[in-house]
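Give me the fold.
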Amino acid sequence: MTQPGRLPVPCPLGFWVWLGSQGAEEFGVSGFGSGDCLAADAGVLGCMGLTGSCVAEEERRVRANAREYNEKFQYASNCIKTSKYNIVTFLPVNLFEQFQEVANTYFLFLLILQLIPQISSLSWFTTIVPLVLVLTITAVKDATDDYFRHKSDNQVNNRQSQVLIGGVLRQEQWMNVRVGDIIKLENNQFVAADLLLLCSSEPHGLCYIETAELDGETNMKVRQAIPVTAELGDTSQLAGFDGEVICEPPNNKLDKFGGTLYWKENKYPLSNQNMLLRGCVLRNTEWCFGLVIFAGPDTKLMQNSGRTKFKRTSIDRLMNTLVLWIFGFLVCMGVILAIGNAIWEHEVGVCFQIYLPWDEGVHSAFFSGFLSFWSYIIILNTVVPISLYVSVEVIRLGHSYFINWDKKMYCAKRRTPAEARTTTLNEELGQVEYIFSDKTGTLTQNIMVFSKCSVNGHSYGDVQDMLGHKAELGERPEPVDFSFNPLADPRFQFWDPSLLEAVKLGDLHVHEFFRLLSLCHTVMSEEKSEGELLYKAQSPDEGALVTAARNFGFVFRSRTPKTITVHELGQAVTYQLLAILDFNNIRKRMSVIVRSPEGKIRLYCKGADTILLERLHPINQDLSSITTDHLNEYAGEGLRTLVLAYRDLEESYYRDWSERLHRAGSAPEGREDHLARLYDEVEHDMMLLGATAIEDKLQQGVPETIAILTLANIKIWVLTGDKQETAVNIGYSCKMLTDDMTEVFVVTGHTVLEVREELRKAREKMMDASRSVCNGFSYQEKLSSKLTSVLEAIAGEYALVINGHSLAHALEADMEVEFLETACACKAVICCRVTPLQKAQVVELVKKYKKAVTLAIGDGANDVSMIKTAHIGVGISGQEGIQAVLASDYSFSQFKFLQRLLLVHGRWSYLRMCKFLCYFFYKNFAFTMVHFWFGFFCGFSAQTVYDQYFITLYNIVYTSLPVLAMGVFDQDVPEQRSMEYPKLYEPGQLNLLFNKREFFICIAQGIYTSILMFFIPYGVFADATRDDGAQLADYQSFAVTVATSLVIVVSVQIGLDTGFWTAINHFFIWGSLAAYFAILFTMHSDGLFRMFPNQFRFVGNAQNALAQPTVWLTIALTTVVCIVPVVAFRFLKLDLKPELSDTVRYTQLVRKKQKAQHRCLRHAGRAGSRRSGYAFSHQEGFGELIMSGKNMRLSSLALSSFAPRPSSSWIETLRKKKGCEGSSAGSPSGADKTLKV
């Protein structure tokens, strides 16, 4: 039976959990339901894959303070379970998981075969020792990881929360919080579940939250309780609250919520404005109470976290394929030799039955061939030795430590090193083709700085040196001194002293400019002590503008619902606030209407240049042209611009307009349209004051990093929850977008048809432009097999900008390919206003169709989904918590380190792993195929050429350390050259260094070596004699000669393959050779024979064989014949067709004594920008909130009743420099400029 309101459906997805140890960790989980800790939600367990079906809710019913009622629905609790094992289940479950690997199962199968005496010619320890070693190492690693998961689980589940139970607040563990509980949150606490806000310490049930963990935005947002619950201020009233909420089922839509509260026979609609979502932080609110609606994996944050996927590299997948091919090849060799054995036994062996009888149980040549097949499978299995997998893990571990130890990726400011949180993906860092990046906190610091401004046709902010040239950043003089202003913000810096001089000298245009900035905003001010102002800005842009006005002498001090108090140059002035014309994304502007103490009514407006310049009075034409030039200059530097204007209103006109505004605000229908028309009416014929330019500070080195990565043929897509204007502005700042681009396509359609049409037009424009460029020329380009469309070979540079609502349509099944083809044809792609789940969908789309390696990088919980989805996830340990870091594969503190991670560590890891695999397959085919050739000369009897100790030690001792040293330390060019020549990165993207072709070349070389290794000694030994004339051709001497030749040849070969020699390489290569001879002579010594006469029978054989000149000549001949063709081929290739890395190495040798010349990417502005630099991260609704007074504290309201407190009389002294003649005809405050309306 299903519960009421629940419907069983197939499970759509599964969840995993990611946690950590800091304050924000508790909501970074998308995990199992109550599972082991409490009664489990069947629906959650179904999604976990623990039951056969998943229960999907049609609606959710929650009754406050009624646990028994809510528990019958089996809702998920806050209990977190991320661990996989316990003490009892660890061994069986872990072994079961490990034997899911084909290689482990294969070697277990070989071990079983070796335990059968009739078919085994090798001892069982040759397989069981390395197998147990691999299983043990993996088990210890898994146990360690699970221990930390247990530790994190316990830390999070045992966190304390204040839960209202029986009318009393009790400290409860987080895992004991249930749906329907009422919990209390205090200031700066994280929201533990999705709550319905009931009441708070603020008037009208308001509270302020920071949603950086959800959408990456650090500006505060306001939430409000519904009026009927906002009055429940104490625990006794809340204990009696028994309202029931019927709402939507759990979903991943962060910006939407629909439900109804039923209480006291009334119903009240609920929206997202009434919800506090898990992952938010309570700010500037002493306390609040909330009703738990969704908990654990049902919360919206968890629903957006996506599914954790086991990540494997492309080399891993290729190796699995190659292992299957090799196994097929092994079977074929076994069949050939088995057939040979059957024929030989039938034709020849039958004649020797008297003294070479068949083994017991063998009664026919066919059955002998069958047993011989399995014997050869055992003997020849070393073509894929288990040591391969051990060596791969050791090499990857070494590469991970190199990343962790890299001092050039260490951030001293935050004391944060780079960290490789996984050891399985290092070589894939050298194959990345697409990077998906968050914006806020990843590319930017989310810090807004007032950088430049234009006032009355004069541009301020550029600093000039002694010669009159613009000074570079490092050449700037000291910043402007604001010490004369006691209310100045000491953190504010400005570099152009002429603007402050204009203020001091009484330039009325400049005064009016800063007066506008101090009045036209929705900032709240708190003064905790005399002169210590704290601004609470709804957006960082507003905070930067108001702070700039503050430092230049126009200090916003306080506000009430009807007044704004500003200290203008030391004098307190209170303006009557008549109206706030609020900002929204359509208007792209905001205005305030104020009455000055003199009774003058003035409208101040700030907004986008594309909007405001069209609304100016015609007399502003000349000034508008100059200001537009300044705006273009600012936009060219990647600054966020706003235009400032004002308009004087007559009293009669304002009264009439105000009455119409009041009627429109009370209209039952069409309220928004009526208000928009009235706003538009009054915001016309304005006078231009100037423009502001704010720098959204990029992280250090972002433009240079993006430029270098682009040269490495890596495409960068920005996926952000921010607004389109802001994202585009940052795109220009970090040089992803440039004015030199052929065109930037903007897709903003709201319907499927609109989006499809916009994408179609974009593709047509690109194709038309490409045809026009190629017309008249023999244009031919070799397209990669990866290209899905000819669009990717177009001429010109394009960019695509798409909004979240348009992206939702573009990602539908019937349009996703069109969107992908259009996007991949562009040099840069920016997706704005996207949800966390949409980020993951975009990454999944590229993975699905492009078959390219993807990397996602972000710093917030809203980035976790795409970090988990991409092949490689990188977390930035920034200002938005550590959720991205906890879900990532690699982490560091600054975006610029991505360049080094990919171009140095990634490229080297890929190069080393490819060289390791090529050499490993070569040496093992050279080693193993000797047995195959020997089979034709030993009656296919499954006799080995080498003794079993050599077979066991070959991959463990004799050849393991040199290849490990090459795999860990090798490099083709130094790190400086890797950064200097980004094109060196392309072989990894094209998978040129290890692929099926390279694999066949390696095994062909190995087979060639094995042929020479066997037949040269065989031919020599056929007629060779010892010094005393005795026959040299005994079996053991032949085995010693072949084994010695093999060890020497593969050692010389790895010397040729090694591109970067270290002391470790020398020690391992020559040390392995010395170890071989030491072990060889020891095993043939008289001492071992006396201790183990049955194991070491060939006393003195090695010493006698290697004392013969003929043997050494044979070894030398074999080595030369094996190595010379390789040397000749590489010499010709280097001379006739050198690779880029060869050219770089040659250049390095030629210029060895010269200083390396580093390229410098100059920060050059773009002249003549035709785009708008407008960007303003503000939200609608704060104006109405301020005018209503609902967000005003009593202390704030009381400020207006106090007498003005002039901070000092410094302005009188300053004005002595210039008299009142500063009031010119162009004064913006002149009465003659009042516009008659």
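The CA atoms of residues 243 and 263 lie 5 Å apart.
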